[in-house]
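## Example pair
The file below holds two records. Each record gives the amino-acid sequence first, followed by its structure token line.
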Amino acid sequence: MDSAEIRSRFLRYFADRGHQIVPSASLLLDDPTLLFVNAGMVPFKPYFLGEAPAPYPRATSVQKVVRTLDIEEVGKTTRHASFFQMAGNFSFGDYFKAEAIPFAWDLLTRSIADGGYGFPEDRLWATVYLDDDEAIDIWHKKVGLPLDRIQRRGMADNFWSMGVPGPCGPCSEIYYDRGSEYGLDGGPVVDEDRYLEVWNLVFMQSERGAGPAKEDYPILGDLPAQNIDTGMGLERMAALLQGVENIYEIDTTRGILDRACELSGAVYGRNAKDDVALRIVADHARTCAFLIGDGVIPGNEGRGYVLRRIMRRTIRMMRLLGAGDPAMPELIDATVLTMAPQYPELNDEANRIRQIAAGEEAVFLQTLKTGTTIFDDAVQQVKNRGSNTLPGAKAFALHDTYGFPFDLTLEMAAEQGLVVDEEAFRQLMGQQRERAKADARDRKVGLTATTEYRDILQAGGTTEFTGYLEAASDAKVIGLLRDGVTVPAAGLGEHVEVILNRSPFYAEAGGQLGDHGRIVTADGGVVEIYDVQVPVPGLFVHRGEVVVGEIVQGAVVTGEVDVARRKAISRAHTATHLIHRAFRERLGDTATQMGSENAPGRIRFDFPNPTPVGALVLQEVEARVNEVLLDDLEVSAQLMTQPEARAMGAMALFGEKYGDQVRVVSVGDWAHELCGGTHAMRSGQLGVVTFLSEGSIGTGVRRLEALVGADAYTYLAREHVLVNRLTDLMKAPSEELVERIERTVTALKDAERDLTKVKSAQLVAGIDAIIG
């Protein structure tokens, strides 16, 4: 059974039992505690925590997941992977253990002909949390699993959380006995290589606090409802159903591994060292493709650093395996070929992913070259001292400053008859990790607590956004916070967060800055609003300063948007859509927006391109955008399903999370884009767009800065005055200015050289006169 069929059977089984099929979310979600989605339940976290009402009582999904905690183990074992797919079924207060356990058992043991996976019942085991007698009763009395195949385990094994503060609960795991040839008798507590975990059923009922990832963390209390979160690793299931030894030999991963063999000349199964390297390549190539596909760019911090590290491990392994030519584009192609049947969007993004991967590989190959030169110098210094030990500090500098892999340093040192002071190196690495952990702890505990927002959400409901239709709305204050704590009132000079039941203020999202304006009370109090955010789904938080009187909880108020600023931002946002479309016309579909900022009259637009964009291309794109302004096309917005949006050619953006219903903003029939922002009513209202600069912000990523409307006009007017001044000074028409100035500058440089020669000759003559 191929992976695509395993996936479709899972979704179909639960859809037939009332679950809403939810497409995989991006690997990048707006969760400050996580770099990447690391579990199937992460997109549903707000529903488990009660931060937002679930749009359906039960759901099912196959979520792409990236975990890098055990990245050093990838390839060395056949159980670890940095990228995998997690199939799951979820209940948001709808059903609990008594339904979740039989669902899993039925799908696993149901015959293949009847839509199941066909596992023999006598090969399945279950584990439960230490004191979960209820789960044992369901397994034994309702399902019929013998008691001797049900085992109790502690918090480290059978109490699940994401490793960070959030939802958690006891779990029950299902294991498959692969047979005595794979290990010892005695069940999962004895041997997890023989007894392979296939499904984890989490009874999500509590919320955990900060603490160790696996156990000994505090339980803060119960969640608003008892929920179900299950996870079935698709790759592990495929290994069992396809009869292969491990997840690296299944249909999707094996295709990448075989391509790595073709490129390097290595043979899988010939020796253990090459097998480890090939497994690393097969796993990491998938991770790279999906991270880049979701908008991550190789960099030196955060998500970009993780991607760079994974990609460089892949490149390094291919070199060790014998690949002499760049390999990343070929590995990306192999990944797209094997994974596109499940993720068709990879076909659309393949060229862009390939370009970014190729650019990073070229940079790293140069790093290897530079690092090798520095290494050779260090070796010579060691030998000159009569030593045979390369200092740990030198190895650390190679690793930390130049990105030179430590295992490569070890290997090259051995070839020179040297050893590396590994203890000193690891001490320096440990110090660096402690600094990183401290940063991570600050990242987690420095967050504004969402408890207050959640309480307001539960008591007063969500904020209704009215800003598409009006710039002023009557509303009621349903929440008032100062320094993160709910207060009954706020007075003159105090900075507060005001939450309304209705709001015309656009909250910062999708690159568009939040609105400014005023909230005015019936008693004449005024709060100047300088920022609007959505810290939890559905709740608009208006941040501002009380400048007149006071504002109190429950007050009836009027929210008034700064209309002039809103219009300037809306013009910028519409201009961004036009620039996006024009770049794709000129550079191809790989020129997809990777980030933007729409400020009053000003635009920042980031897009992938391996080289600088030429001046002629920029002129053509700018001219195309301004042509559309002259056409004065209508700007409209429509709600539709995602398939309908794709059918009309609407563009979606990296890392954005879209629901079943999406809002498509169209500029005539020329540009269509999924967007929740505010816009001009017609393209002609933008007036004029002018480009300021284009430059690199990272490997393969360019940034365009531009002005729109009155800001663009003011800039061009200043440029016009400057050109007129120069034409007067140079006594030349504007079209000849560049040539005339170049000639003048060249003449001045020549004159300076001649003057220097004359002065030197005079000095020599003077010295001769004195001596003579």
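Second record, same layout:
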Amino acid sequence: MNKDFYTQSVKDVKVNDGFFSPIMETTRTQMLPYQWNALNDAIPDIEPSHCIENFKIAAGLSQGEFHGKVFQDSDLYKWIEAAAYSLKWHPDSSLEKQIDEAINLIVSTQQPDGYIGTYYTINGLDKRWTNIMGNHELYCAGHMLEAAVAYYEITGKRKLLDAMIRFVDYIDSIFGPEDDKLHAYPGHEIIEMALMRLYNITHDEKHLNLAAYFINERGKQPCYFDGEIKKYNNIWKWKDSYFKFDYYQAGKPVRGRGEAVGHAVRAVYLYSGIADVARASDDEELYTTCKKLWDNIVHRKMFITGALGSSSYGESFTIDYDLPNDLVYGETCASVAMVFFALRMLKMEQKGEYADVMEKLLYNGTISGMSLDGKSFFYVNPLEVYPEKNEKIQAFRHVKVKRQTWFSCACCPPNLARLVESLGSYIYTENSNSLYVNLYIGNQANVFDNTTKISMHSNYPWDGNIKLNIDSTRNDIWKLALHIPSWCHNYTINVDGKPADYTLNDGYAYIEANWNNTHTVEFNMDITARVVRSNPKVRENIGKITVMRGPVVYCLEEEDNGNNLHEIEMPASTQFKEEYRPDMLGGIVTISATGRKIKESDSDDLYIDNTNPEYEDKDLLWIPYYAWDNRHTGEMMVWVRD
């Protein structure tokens, strides 16, 4: 670890981008109001959330019982966080008033000792902390803290933040190494990185120490959860599983781990928190642990779309290279969490691989989780569907072939919303003498304490022509570092119309200059369709190929290619025709190719003596994976036989 190379996110960024601005606007104008109505049980024909009603009951404003998941409160906190981010780039007094009213309701449920949580407030405060493993109290606290920090940073309003500081003080009185405290840690992680966001505001060592305690205590033996189960006779769903307490990443201590295990969302939230604590504490051992876990995920357990979690059992990671396209879990929340992890690793070491993974996720496995109109959602993000199989075979029923209007466990939609609405904070990172361009999303930004204005113009990912206008009053030498995506092999960089003098290091092109006054940087990448294969250790994909263009993964849909997609083959040597279609799926580049398909046989025999099948030529149309299931329900496939 070298603190001299640490960076921080540039937060004064306004996105103005042909690709992402419409998604952000759809999230703001459609997704956030839709989610608010869902939280208030105001959408017919979906399972009631009861989220707001739970708060009203806890506040004494209504009568009734708690309904929903034990973590139902967190849906409101994620909505507040997403709505807060939207205010930054699109001020909206009515939305801000709505948030303030929600915060007033939340704070009205706070107990004299600082505790907030509707499940135990309604069902009995004496039962608090009796099922830390399963009942998500610290998870809900973490999401509430993230919302409080975001709303304070954007509006300056402290009501929720101050309430959360009181709540954290209470949590700190319950958990810790002292003999009179619980030597425990969350069953579902997220409070670790939330505490670090609070620490970045308060600089109170108590907040850093509590986050570090949760990380360092996790996995010590005997496992705290084992004793809790016996003491309170709690149900342990994973008793007979292979991963047991590693479902919660608690089978052994965090330090030195090198394999991602258990529930994928929990795991990657934890790894993000570890990265935060490692950076703040200059903890080399934790940092090394992060790098090992990163390597295991990215090079052995990540789908080409960025999806994580190979098994629906436990929504979990499995063994290395086990990446089933049709049985995948690939929860949207896991992809969102991986973006968080990537940014944290990037801010400790500006390596192109971290930016590559952010890009992969943002253009594929995250935004596939919502429809183009922002009103339906995928929880699971498959790479292959066959509707009859997904409907009628139990092992595949977790995979939906059509996005759902809502879920009884509705963690993914608001989680995706908070990522999309905060997108500007991922584009640039900086330190005192370098500005890093990590993503090519059109924007206007102020950097280096407002001494330098950056304006980026881009039609990415449909073309690779990036233009940066720099207007700086800073009169010294600093480095502009452009991320060179790993897929990009042909590019040019010009400064003020002349070829740039740059050096390459870890996936970035560094241009060192005095950027005083105005300058123009043009970065032109050659973006064309290409064939991609898996490592042969991925058994599912042996003998198969797929198509990518820039960072975008493509797929075949029945809508364009007919049924029985499994009968299609495409040679890797095929010639591609690329066409921008502004009228299709919100504006996309389609890729046409010629493949072949097995001719249907008149025979009904299930098995046939060795004969060569007959083929016929087949025109294929590939569309971006994120845009599938926005027309008619049907088959979809990312990988085809070569």
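Notes on the second record: The chain is about 35% helix and 20% strand. The first strand starts at residue 8 and ends at 9.
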